[in-house]
Design a protein that fits this description.
357 residues, mainly alpha, Serine Threonine Protein Phosphatase 5, Tetratricopeptide repeat, three-stranded antiparallel β-sheet
């Protein structure tokens, strides 16, 4: 089948000629060739199609000048130009990988992540700190697929690169410790998970601020570990930190959005894409369900979490979910003596009802 229509379909394949070729995905001996670029090879049609869907469709023709040796490419100017093109490819692959990871398409993310790492090694060398983002994305994809042994190997290489590079920034260190914490949570090493989430929070606060939504993601993951240990007072405290951060963030975002539209009941611009919306929704639902089932029945926590979810879905354009969570928030807020949550919740419900008219 052809791919001229731009769809992610398998493209015509042919036997490669000349010297021994290696599969783009697994590095085993290749028997098939991409007939579009003619510089990429595969061991079988399954790996060819996986690579096409994962990344090759985007970079097929970009590989031709890089993988076709000429007299110019062997000269200094040619080597510099090739390096620049590889840097561009790294960024393309990074963005494609991140998009697929955000959508939970871990298998499709693998080809882009693998190519990004290989290209990064070509540009920066085998042990440079610039490889860490590629290691982390590849680890994230394998984490989603349950390949924990592969994740451990990738993260050990990322840790080594960071240890050798004191100048490595806090944003990268936060990402490294977060996925290490998730790995140790998955393998049951809870104390190690807590240590890494502590470092995650520290470096995230340096990069983004103590009260950023990025930083509070570390608090949420840490709370989940404490929940596994049965340490509920700490869980309540951390969940409270998370929900207060999100409540402030969403309140400010809603206020800004409403001020920027002529008609208050106009459908607003979504503040997150679908994958981000789902991730935040899952986190806030976890906190709401915990608060509702908790023996302490903290009405403030229930009201805050439900109000967050109502704002999230109102901003996301789902008025039914916004109305449901808003009603839950209003009921909880009315159980809190002398609290100022009731009025903004009622205001949100008025906006939601206005959309349904």
């Amino acid at each position: 089948m052809d791919a001229e229509d731009g769809c992610s379909k398998i493209i015509p394949l042919a036997l490669p000629k000349g010297v021994k070729k290696l599969c783009e995905l697994c590095q085993k001996e290749a028997h098939l060739q991409c007939t579009k670029c003619r510089v990429t090879f595969y061991c079988d049609a399954e790996h060819q199609q996986a690579d096409w869907v994962g990344i090759h469709e985007r970079i097929c023709q970009l590989l031709v000048p890089i993988r076709t040796p000429t007299i110019f490419s062997l000269q200094q100017a040619g080597r510099i130009e090739t390096r620049i093109k590889k840097v561009e490819l790294i960024e393309i692959c990074r963005l494609v990988t991140q998009g697929k990871l955000s959508e939970g398409k871990y298998q499709e993310a693998l080809p882009a992540a693998q190519f990004c790492l290989r290209c990064s090694i070509d540009v920066h060398g085998p042990s440079a700190v610039q490889l860490v983002p590629a290691f982390l994305q590849l680890a994230e994809a394998n984490m989603g697929l349950g390949n924990l042994a592969v994740v451990m190997e990738l993260l050990s290489q990322a840790e080594w690169a960071v240890l050798k590079s004191p100048e490595c920034g806090p944003a990268v260190r936060h990402q490294l410790h977060r996925i290490l914490g998730r790995l140790h949570t998955a393998t049951g090493n809870l104390e190690a998970a807590l240590l890494h989430f502590s470092n995650d929070i520290y470096f995230a606060s340096e990069a983004y601020g103590l009260h950023s939504t990025v930083t509070c993601g570390g608090y949420f993951l840490m709370a989940n570990v404490f929940a596994k240990q049965g340490r509920m007072p700490i869980v309540r405290s951390l969940y409270s930190q998370v929900v207060h951060t999100w409540h402030y963030h969403l309140t400010e975002h809603l206020r800004t959005q409403v001020q920027n539209v002529e008609n208050p009941v106009t459908v607003l611009e979504p503040c997150y894409d679908n994958s981000q919306q789902a991730e935040v929704d899952k986190m806030l639902r976890t906190i709401l369900e915990f608060a509702q089932s908790d023996s302490r029945k903290d009405s403030t926590q229930i009201a805050l979490a439900a109000h967050c979810l109502a704002m999230l879905w109102f901003l996301g354009g789902d008025s039914l979910k916004a109305l449901g969570f808003g009603s839950t928030a209003l009921q909880a807020s009315q159980l809190i003596p002398n609290h100022d949550l009731t009025e903004p919740i009622q205001g949100l419900l008025q906006l939601v009802n206005g959309l349904q008219i």
